[in-house]
Design brief:
alpha+beta, 60s Ribosomal Protein L30, Chain: A, five-stranded mixed sheet, 25% strand
């Protein structure tokens, strides 16, 4: 089994303390052995968010990198909730929403930025069911918002 903390170091991924939610919600809710993570955006390590519509101000590769940042933000919230990412049994489901120009249709390729990182970190435990959909807009013009459901040890 992969040591997740070691794998993060090998990949050069640094988690952070999650910001407080901007409204009346929480980042994570646990019910039984499932953790439901709220939609997260692409917070940059230096602060602030990536902004722009994919297919207009943001190209495919920039959108994919934004989705990778979202994965890091999701994992930061998950770690804050469960304490140790080695408790993850399985990434169950990812819902990726892409703020896309109407002519842009490569939503799955954008969300691969998140999915590929999860598999790189967790191996087979990171393989998940997924939806990748285009949106007319997202909050504050972020290019990507992603939700995640995770099964953890009891």
């Amino acid at each position: 089994m992969v040591d997740v903390e070691q794998r993060l170091k090998e990949l050069g991924v640094t988690l952070h303390t999650p910001d407080r939610p901007l409204a009346n919600y929480v980042h994570a809710v646990r019910t039984g052995n499932l953790i439901f993570l709220a939609g997260h955006g692409p917070r940059k390590p230096e602060g602030g968010m990536v902004i722009g519509k994919v297919g207009r101000e943001i190209d495919l590769e920039q959108g994919k990198e934004a989705a990778r940042l979202v994965a890091i933000n999701l994992l930061s919230s998950l770690k804050a909730e469960i304490g140790d990412l080695n408790k993850v049994k399985r990434i169950v489901k990812v819902l990726g929403m892409v703020n896309a120009d109407p002519s842009f249709t490569n939503h799955p390729e954008v969300i691969n930025g998140c999915s590929d990182l999860l598999v790189a970190i967790f191996g087979d435990r990171g393989r998940h069911a997924r939806s990748a959909v285009g949106m007319g807009s997202l909050p504050r013009n972020i290019p990507v918002e992603i939700e995640m459901i995770v099964e953890v040890e009891g």
